[in-house]
């Protein structure tokens, strides 16, 4: 039974690599009359795949490749790093995902998803938030979390991170969905926040470990935020905000939308204003959301009590500091205060200053490293590696196979478990090949 389960997980990983996130390939396979799980797709003939997905289509060609090496490396890495793999149809797979048009094949998860029915609210908004948006996102998220609501976000800079921090402040629960691999913290300054979320909820991704993510991954990720949530609350954003993508997905999925009203002259209130004109519910406190979703929600009393304990601005900033979340977002500098209205003219000049560009120098270097674009020096790995991966890589001879026992002798300071983890990680990164008989070879 154990080996059968492991084989099924391996094939689900293979299937997820072939069915790219955000595409309809997996949904089309689910409608196939002969679909009985990943094994049936793996055993399907080339002709069957061509008939189902189109002759010589990219999806069909990907599924014709029966190589399981990458899937095995990912499975070994997840087992070594205690990353859960939740596949379609399994008990922990969110039922709401199965109902959407583009369901994920599987999820990589650190932490625990809610195991009992509960209310879940997606809190999203601008990366370039205002002090007004920061205060209300934190306050409302913490109030909801204290009432037993799970806060859902994308852990992006700005409103998303503030909402999750608010949930943690209230000793509540939060789930974040990433637009990159589960092993890649983005933005990197949210590492402490990510670690805290693992212990008070879950960090989830449909992208495999080693996937650095790009600008196209985040809109794809947004459909999971809305699908997992019972409703979506948009705090701030301009008229081109990605929050509107999430809101549109939520409407398609039949979820109610809430929006924080703001100044009509403020560009950061454009997205909420658009949604309010379309019929979204007004929400400027937690009670607005709770009462709209359920008039008899038992935690309303807790929210009313929390209203008398609303966190101060200094308390909010201290919590954000503790999790490495910036207090002063890129849109707001010292000449802006909480009462300042952000106009379109000022927004254009201040929206993306050099040090806060989406593709900053640091993030660009990180992205290039994860894409293996940098040139390696003699003997050095092509990307920067943490210990003990760096030592393991340097100890391996070039163009020669080396056994696990030999590596143990070469690295007496590295215990067997750490060595196994390092080798699995190097295999996932594509720097080392895993061969039969516990032998490895540097690429």
Distance between the termini: 35 Å
- Alpha-carbon Rg, integer: 23 Å
The number of distinct β-strands equals 12
Task: Give the structural class.
Answer: alpha/beta
What is the element layout, followed by pairings?
Layout: H1 2-18, H2 25-30, H3 38-42, H4 46-53, H5 58-64, H6 69-80, E1 84-87, H7 95-98, E2 106-111, E3 120-124, H8 131-146, E4 150-153, H9 159-169, E5 173-177, H10 191-199, E6 201-205, H11 217-228, E7 231-234, H12 243-252, E8 257-259, H13 270-277, E9 281-282, H14 286-293, H15 300-307, H16 313-322, H17 344-350, H18 361-370, H19 389-395, E10 401-403, H20 404-410, H21 416-428, E11 432-435, E12 439-442
Parallel strand pairs: 3-4, 3-7, 4-5, 5-6, 7-8, 8-9
Antiparallel strand pairs: 1-2, 2-6, 10-12, 11-12
Helix pairs in contact: 1-6, 4-5, 6-21, 8-9, 11-12
Overall description:
With 443 residues, the chain is α/β, with parallel strands linked by helices. It has 3 domains: 2-110, no CATH class; 112-344, Rossmann fold (3-Layer(aba) Sandwich); 372-442, Orthogonal Bundle (Arc Repressor Mutant, subunit A), CATH 1.10.10.10. Helix content is 44%, strand content 11%. The protein is built from 21 helices and 12 strands. It has helices at residues 2-18, 25-30, 38-42, 46-53, 58-64, 69-80, 95-98, 131-146, 159-169, 191-199, 217-228, 243-252, 270-277, 286-293, 300-307, 313-322, 344-350, 361-370, 389-395, 404-410, 416-428, and strands at 84-87, 106-111, 120-124, 150-153, 173-177, 201-205, 231-234, 257-259, 281-282, 401-403, 432-435, 439-442. A 9-stranded mixed β-sheet has the order 1-2-6-5-4-3-7-8-9, with helices on both faces. It has a 3-stranded antiparallel β-sheet with strand order 10-12-11. Helix 1 packs across helix 6 (69-80), helix 4 (46-53) packs antiparallel against helix 5 and helix 11 packs across helix 12. It is globular. The chain starts with a helix and ends with a strand. The model is unreliable at 328-339 and 348-378 (pLDDT under 50).
